[in-house]
Amino acid sequence: MPAEAAEASPGLLWAPLAWLPEGWREHVLLRIGKDGRWAEVTPGVRVPPEHAETLDAPLLPGFVDAHSHAFQRAFAGAAERRESASDDFWSWRERMYAVALRIGPEHLRALAAQLYVELLRGGYTHVCEFHYLQRERDGTDYADPLAMSWALADAAADAGIGLTILPVLYERAGFDTPALRDEQRRFRSSARSVFDAAQRIAAAGRPLLGAGIAIHSLRGASPAGIAALRAMAGGHAGPIHIHVAEQTAEVDDCLHATGARPIEWLAREGLLDARWQLVHATHAAPDEIDAVAASGAGIVLCPSTEANLGDGLCDLPGWLSAGVPITIGSDSQVTRDWREELRWLEYGQRLARRSRNVAAAPERGCASTAERLAACLLAGSAAAAGQPSWGLVAGARADALAVDGGADALIGVPATGTLDALVFSSPSTIWKHVMVGGRWVLRDGRHGRGNTIADDFAKSMRQLGPAPNRP
Q1: Label partner for 198 (CA 20 to 30 A): which of 85, 211, 333, 413?
Q2: Where are the domains of the chain?
Q3: In 3-state terms, what secondary structure has residue 56?
Q4: Which ranges in 101-247 belong to alpha helices (H)?
Q5: What predicted TM-score, i.e. pTM, was given to this entire model?
Q6: Fold of 3-61+391-444
Q7: Phi and psi for 247 in degrees, rounded to 5?
Q8: What's the CATH code, domain 63-385?
Q9: 58-110 pLDDT, tens per residue?
């Protein structure tokens, strides 16, 4: 990444309080290895070594944004008007397509770099790109079929964020429509092109860059295409992501076409294992939740996008009780902060159930809603991002969030109440420093290339012009 975007590794960090997998621990010394991973994490070191960088407020691990469409940053906030009798996910999608048709690699790099800086400011240190905007505007291949993938990788390097690119299998417009529509022409792919793209990206050897594979949805990929990709990916250890059960119409169409609900179909076909990440999973029946739990697969919830699009509410208590790994995603980019995603996730449940602290589990020794949700996210992050481990633990990538102890939301809050205040007190700029791979990419809340990236973003937005308000 550009030298001015990150400082050299401090080597040793000492925090008065840090959130480790076992909870809050005092006086934590963290040593960063030459590979950018935590070499040692030791609580109870009351006096920091002289050569350690000492923090004056709590330290948290970085969080994974497990579902992102970077190009939709150009559309965020541009679809909040209704000038017809109704508006829903499907009409929003048509307007989004019109934006997607105008974006080239140079635009995508600028849009994604701005998004990735914003994600860093929102406490994410790694992002998983569900990447289907892959072809030229006319639907043909770029000279390098991975031109749009490299634009994303370059943007991540500009920002200094970790990135997993997930090339997407996208073959058809619906269960009863065997081909894509013309406005979807840039999304066309095959099992072979998806697998080959993932292999090329993984082999590139770029710092902080990895790859997995994705299937757009059961409506967007044929059973034959899914089976072919599954066969190719037999020895693939990385993540496999899929949109599933986001809309009730999708569930109804799947039932009509296959005789099964979407998650039920995936389980019936024996596809699910610990590599699989089911994005949204909003409309899941109890037996489907049990099937996912038995398979070891995880889910990726996108609360702010699901609210913005009117998708509905997931069965959060059901997923939590079943012990299914959970992560979150920024998806359509209407929100770029994991704290707000958790707030939406919990508040939606409270409104629907007319109850408070729905996610808390005092019977399991976790009375804090924020701590239980955050712990769930961290437990599912490694699998979702294709990382060997995650968090403030030896062997995990050295990603961390240094809290600004003077932030309004934390004034007067006991240190061990930090997570509760972070999520459920008024939003504010909260991160003093953000570390990725052992290097500070945000220092005193500032990104070294933030102004340049913002200027490039504004230029690209002007070139793209206003987003249409109707299909």
Answers
A1: 333
A2: 3-61+391-444, 63-385
A3: coil
A4: 105-121, 147-159, 191-203, 223-232
A5: 0.96
A6: Urease, subunit C; domain 1 (2.30.40)
A7: -120, 145
A8: 3.20.20.140
A9: 999 999 999 999 999 999 988 888 888 888 888 888 888 989 999 999 999 99
